[in-house]
Amino acid sequence: MSETLGDRLPKAVERIGRFLGSDLVQKVSREFVHDVMALHACAALLRPIETAPKDGTYVLLFGPSGYFTTPLRCDVARWDAEYRPRDPWVTYSNECFASSGQPPTHWMPLPTISEE
Fold this sequence. Notes:
The protein has 116 residues and is of the alpha+beta class. The protein is built from 2 helices and 5 strands. A 5-stranded antiparallel sheet has the order 1-5-2-3-4, with no helix packed on it. Strand 2 (59-64) and strand 3 (72-79) form a beta hairpin.
């Protein structure tokens, strides 16, 4: 049975912390592991952009931002080829998703909110 990312990352952080011996390094490393694991869990929910609905339904879009410091962009958007024929993914603020970077590569449905 092979180890998962969730098994390997905490062990790696522990080894780094022991090697460097700093409480700050251990704290930052633990936070990094938490962030990476959250991204890994989110990535499992992402779907290829080719499968996204093109009926005007709002979805979460993901794609390269074009910036080194924040390489991933996420926005709420819908497909509207009549409004923007050249760049049909339109954000909730009626801007083209690709105008702030590159075209989206993945999507996921908007989360539902329970009315309890």
